[in-house]
Amino acid sequence: MSSVKDISSTYLHFQDSGRVDAIPVSASFWAEVMAGRHPQLNQGRLMTAFTFSEPWATWERHPAGEELVMLLSGAVTLLLEESGQEQAVQLNSPGSYVVVPRNVWHTARTAAPTTMLFMTPGAGTEHRPVVA
Predict the structure, then answer these.
(1) Which of 40, 54, 55, 73 could make an S-S bridge to 109, C-beta 3.0–4.6 Å?
(2) How many angstroms separate the CA atoms of 96 and 76, rounded?
């Protein structure tokens, strides 16, 4: 029997086989993924939600596939950088979303408490710092 869980403290790994595994969120999780310590994530998708109230400190991209980014509460500007051009995408109402194309650098800016849901390729995420 299933029990209620909180998506903000768990990654859900949706495997290509149809199975879903819960992975507890940790501060070191993405560093571990980038170091190759979670090879089971090379297939499928990860889903989680984050709450933040400041601009992200990094850009990220996903060479393994597209990413769903959905606003649950608050408001955010997503910046997408493709071929040296930045595009600002405003998400202002709960349920609004964007699909970030494969390999497109993106970051988020907000000044209000904002919660977003992410469905991301499980492996190969790259980060770089935001330069002001």
Answers:
(1) 55
(2) 11
The CA distances from residue 36 to 31, 123, 128, in Å, are: 9, 8, 18
CATH number at residue 24: 2.60.120.10
For residue 79, what are the domain limits?
7-129
pLDDT at 66: 95
Within 10 angstroms of residue 120's Cβ, the number of other Cβ atoms is: 22
Count structural domains, the chain.
1
Three-class secondary structure of residue 113 per DSSP = coil
What mean pLDDT, rounded, does the chain reach? 89
Rounded to two decimals, what is the model's pTM?
A: 0.87
Report the distance separating Cα 55 and Cα 23, nearest Å.
Answer: 26
Hey, what are 85's tokens? 């051009």
